[in-house]
Design brief:
Elements lengths: L4 E7 L5 H12 L5 E4 L14 H12 L4 E5 L8 H12 L3 E5 L9 H6 L2 E3 L3 H11 L1
Parallel strand pairs: 1-2, 1-3, 3-4, 4-5
Helix pairs in contact: 2-3
């Protein structure tokens, strides 16, 4: 039986890209889990958009392809205007939002968790189960 490929948009702050990188490593470590990443990495040409409106449009074009939006719920997410916009886009497009509480984090973003359909801890099995449930 062939595994389903999960289309994901992983929201992240480029200022905190180490957590994003660790999440990608975690997802890649499960040989039975396949996904396509529609995220916008730091070096993506989308960042050359001429204005914020065009950048938001480009991000929406990525989210529309995803079956779920994953947001790292670190406290920094509360203060990120782009993560807030991504949440608004995901909700408008009726995409499931999965909030991941960072490993060892005592403070997390209430805003992200309040808007999430599923909240999980920093655990490979929990994250992958949440993605499968969201699909």
């Amino acid at each position: 039986m062939q595994n389903k490929i999960h289309n994901l948009f992983i929201s992240h702050s480029w200022s905190y890209s180490d957590a994003y990188d660790r999440l990608i490593e975690l997802l890649d470590s499960d040989r039975d889990f396949e996904y396509k990443n529609y995220s916008v990495p730091k070096d993506d040409p989308i960042h050359n958009a001429p204005n914020a409106e065009k950048l938001a449009e480009a991000i929406e074009n990525q989210i529309v392809m995803a079956s779920a939006v994953i947001i790292l719920a670190g406290v920094y997410a509360t203060y990120s205007k782009w993560i807030n916009k991504e949440i608004a886009i995901a909700k408008r497009l009726q995409k499931k939002i999965i909030a991941i509480e960072p490993w060892g984090s005592e403070r997390t973003s209430a805003y992200v968790k309040d808007n999430a359909d599923i909240i999980v801890g920093w655990n490979t099995a929990s994250i992958i189960d949440a993605i499968k449930e969201a699909a």
